[in-house]
Specification:
Helix content is about 10%, strand content about 35%. It is mostly beta strands.
Length: about 300
């Protein structure tokens, strides 16, 4: 009887452990799903609002964390050096080795949205020098809802209207100095212009005047808005804000010909080969279906075009 009782007790303990492990697994899964919208961004109140798709303030110090593709531990690290952190105690550091670029980090949100905003803070290392091209910063991908990779690996080609589109904020030093130059739209869409070499490289759209170069060594609040068009119309657009100031838009865009292509990925894209090793920093990233805006303590933009009377 004692032996039988012992076996029954052991069976009860095993069952209890099984139940506890199941509960722990459920809670972990629930936490992962919850993190889908506000991964590592609990310090910014907007990240708890229903419109938010994804957040990362890098305060948890974990990489790749919520990023699903591109992580390279040599290129992507978390810094605790407060001189390179915008808010809190940590930020993402992207390293560009000499004669190379800084890679990328991608986050999908399938099946996607027709209208989205992304906002982040970026700082370039003092003395930044562009290579042949300056660097991209971040981009929205429009992929097919049944193929999250449909827009990737397509540089130099033109979207058909049924496969993909792309809208990025990048830097360009052709017309404004110092490096990394000014911020522009860099876009792929079905009606894009062919380049002289016969390829279809991203088309440029410029911000409105005054067009000024990004100054290395200071933080900028950048926001990109992307509206996908209704198929059969040209009512799509893209807009940018710098430090909360509206700086430009391109309207009447035909991004797609079917709702099977939607905005469903955000990429931090550190492309642009550099001659010497350099770094930039990203902090307080938010993706949302509503306007985000800058945090309350964003430094005001330096006024320009003032006249002394």
């Amino acid at each position: 009887m004692l032996e039988l009782t012992s076996k029954r007790s052991l069976g009860g303990s095993a069952l209890l452990r099984f139940l506890l492990n199941g509960i722990a697994l459920f809670l972990s899964l629930f936490a992962f799903i919850a993190a889908d919208k506000a991964y590592g961004a609990s310090t910014e109140p907007i990240c708890s609002t229903p419109a938010v798709i994804f957040c990362d303030d890098f305060e948890n110090g974990i990489l790749p964390g919520g990023w699903q593709d591109g992580y390279n531990p040599v290129l992507h690290t978390i810094t605790s050096d407060l001189t390179n952190v915008y808010k809190g105690g940590k930020a993402l550091q992207a390293t560009y080795p000499a004669r190379s670029d800084g890679g990328w980090l991608t986050r999908w949100f399938m099946p996607g949205y027709d209208h989205a905003f992304a906002r982040l803070y970026v700082k370039f290392e003092p003395g930044w020098q562009c290579g042949i091209n300056c660097t991209k910063i971040f981009a929205f991908y429009g992929n097919r809802i049944d193929n999250r990779w449909s827009g990737f690996g397509k540089a130099g080609t033109r979207p058909s209207g049924t496969d993909w589109f792309y809208a990025a904020l990048v830097t360009l030093n052709w017309y404004r100095q110092p490096d990394p130059g000014e911020l522009i739209f860099y876009s792929y869409f079905p009606e894009m212009t062919q380049a002289p070499d016969g390829m279809y490289w991203g088309n440029f759209f410029f911000q409105k005047d005054p067009r000024e170069a990004i100054q290395p060594g200071r933080w900028y609040c950048l926001e990109l808005e992307l509206q996908a068009n209704k198929p059969g119309t040209r009512d799509g657009f893209q807009r940018m804000w710098i430090d909360g100031v509206f700086k430009g838009e391109s309207l009447n865009m035909r991004w797609r010909d079917t709702t099977d292509v939607r905005i469903n990925a955000l990429q931090l894209t550190f492309s642009g080969e550099v001659a010497v090793a350099q770094r930039l920093w990203i902090d307080n990233l938010v993706v949302s279906t509503q306007k985000i805006g800058c945090m309350a303590d964003t430094p005001p933009a330096v006024p320009t075009g003032l006249l002394v009377q």
